[in-house]
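Lecture notes, unit on protein representations.

Consider one protein chain, 146 amino acids long.
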Amino acid sequence: MASKKLYNHLAMKDVEELKTKLQTEQERILNSQVGKKSEGSANYTETKDEVDSANEDILLSSHLRFSNRENFYLKKIRKAIAKIDSGDYGLCEECGSEISFARLQARPTSEMCIGCKEESEKAESQNVHLKASKSMGKKIDLVTNI
């Protein structure tokens, strides 16, 4: 059961609304993934020319990228739901201050208050050579990917 003292800045009805929103989004992603898995590689044929093969490779690459993004988002959703259940939801992971309800409504998976998020993005934008791909967990070398 969630601790009421950690939700001082959020009404329980608001927390429940956000949890429902997160659960709905989680269900949408899981249903989407099941549908994509059932499609599989049914379109595979041996008689493709080079252009068809190249197009299929591009589509597969895009599908994998979006799938990775969805998986990353799904992890964030599950983490947010776990925080709701433990009573830690709505607190900034950087400074410990309260994340506003308006921000949580807009982005229920928020882990930082707006001030800390702005600082984080500012630091990241100033160091573009070490920018990390959050969904892939790899460093992006912008110099060679131009």
